[in-house]
């Protein structure tokens, strides 16, 4: 582009966006990334003031991995409820598929252009959203990841569903008990790039190194992309390829439901064990018909609520995302920001035939 037309394009971009997006693209200066010295997470708002009043009238955009996944419908509803209570506005945007990463990038840019005060993002990929998220932060938008994180420097804080290590290890422990610590097992995951599932799978592999699992062999990690049909077909494929399979771990609500559906209608029902992360409402009938013994999850609505309350605390200056800062999340109580800017929701619940009827989500 010639200099004069570049200047014209830049002026036009600046007029529409009035953002540093234009400044960067056109060679202007942007604020340098500031990282918390101890945690590596982005700190964009100076010092925290724990006594700052919570602001009202903010807009917080929720961007889940995919809008048509019922897990995110529940999570984001929790976010909406909290924002309404706090006198702020909620909006949700997002792709239809958990593998549409470029779609997620566009939605980050849309929220930035709309000048929301904060966004809560469940990232499909740890790195792909980074440039767009940094752009958002340099425009004074607070970025919270929830459910699935990015690289720490691309957000202010991560609201995690539970300790990733705990989740990975306990899923292996649950399945090993069910198969008597012997036999071939497989994992049916979501998207191949998903930060949350990949972190849990790394801990599963590490747990399997313990000598007590010497007779348990992980034969395959399959990916159903959080798509019901693909997850169903992947389960079928796992059993065709590995006829001696004794158990499957599916750390995704979409995957475990599809796998339960497949097993329940097959000769493997009750013989090939299935555990992982699912909602009680999805799996109730498979627990009652003997397809699933036990599985786990947190309450997705509470995760969404905590993401919303974190976003408002950040946008109000109560916290910056640095380790050790504490804030009150309404009726949920007080939370302290841990290493890497991570805020933990709590411990997951294990569901089985004895307790499943006490839960409705
Ligand atoms: C799916 C998504 C989500 C994950 C849950 C357990 O709905 O992959 O990211 O946290 O499962």
Automatic annotation (TrEMBL):
GO cellular component: outer membrane-bounded periplasmic space
Record-level GO BP terms: rhamnose transmembrane transport
Positions of the Periplasmic binding protein domain: 60-318
Origin superkingdom: Bacteria
Signal peptide: 1-25
PROSITE patterns: PROKAR_LIPOPROTEIN
The protein, known as: Rhamnose ABC transporter substrate-binding protein
Keyword set includes Signal: yes
Primary localisation category: other
Location in or out of the cell: Cell envelope
Organismal lineage: Bacteria, Bacillati, Actinomycetota, Actinomycetes, Kitasatosporales
One of the record's GO molecular function terms: carbohydrate binding
Keywords: Signal
InterPro entries: Bact_Solute-Bind_Prot2, Peripla_BP_I, RhaS, SBP_2_dom
């Amino acid at each position: 582009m010639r200099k004069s037309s570049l200047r014209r394009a830049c002026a036009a971009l600046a007029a529409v966006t009035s953002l540093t997006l234009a400044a960067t693209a056109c060679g202007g200066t942007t604020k340098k990334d500031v990282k918390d010295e101890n945690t590596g997470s982005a700190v964009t708002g100076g010092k925290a003031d724990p006594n700052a009043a919570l602001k009202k009238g903010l807009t917080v955009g929720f961007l889940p991995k995919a809008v048509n996944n019922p897990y995110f419908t529940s999570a984001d509803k929790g976010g909406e409820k909290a924002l309404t209570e706090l006198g702020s506005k909620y909006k949700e945007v997002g792709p239809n598929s958990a593998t549409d990463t470029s779609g997620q990038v566009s939605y980050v840019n849309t929220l930035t252009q709309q000048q929301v005060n904060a966004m809560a993002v469940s990232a499909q990929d740890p790195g792909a959203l980074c440039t767009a998220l940094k752009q958002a932060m340099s425009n004074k938008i607070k970025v919270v990841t929830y459910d699935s994180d990015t690289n720490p420097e691309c957000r202010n804080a991560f609201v995690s569903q539970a300790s990733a290590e705990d989740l990975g290890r306990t899923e292996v422990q649950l399945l090993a008990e069910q198969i008597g610590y012997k036999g071939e097992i497989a994992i049916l995951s979501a998207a191949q790039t998903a930060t949350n599932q990949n972190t849990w799978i790394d801990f599963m592999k590490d747990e399997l190194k313990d000598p007590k699992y010497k007779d348990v062999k992980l034969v395959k990690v399959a990916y159903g992309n959080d798509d019901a049909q693909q997850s169903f077909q992947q389960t079928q494929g796992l059993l065709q390829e590995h006829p001696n399979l004794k158990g499957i771990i599916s750390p995704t609500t979409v995957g475990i439901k599809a796998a339960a559906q497949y097993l329940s209608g097959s000769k493997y029902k009750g013989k090939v064990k299935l555990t992982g992360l699912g909602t009680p409402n999805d799996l109730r009938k498979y627990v009652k018909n003997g397809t699933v013994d036990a599985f786990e999850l947190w309450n997705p609505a509470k995760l969404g609520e905590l993401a919303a309350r974190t976003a408002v605390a950040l946008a109000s200056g109560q916290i910056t995302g640095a380790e050790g800062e504490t804030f009150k999340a309404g009726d949920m109580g007080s939370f302290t920001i841990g290493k890497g800017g991570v805020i933990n929701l709590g411990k997951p619940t294990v569901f089985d035939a004895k307790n499943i009827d006490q839960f409705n989500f």
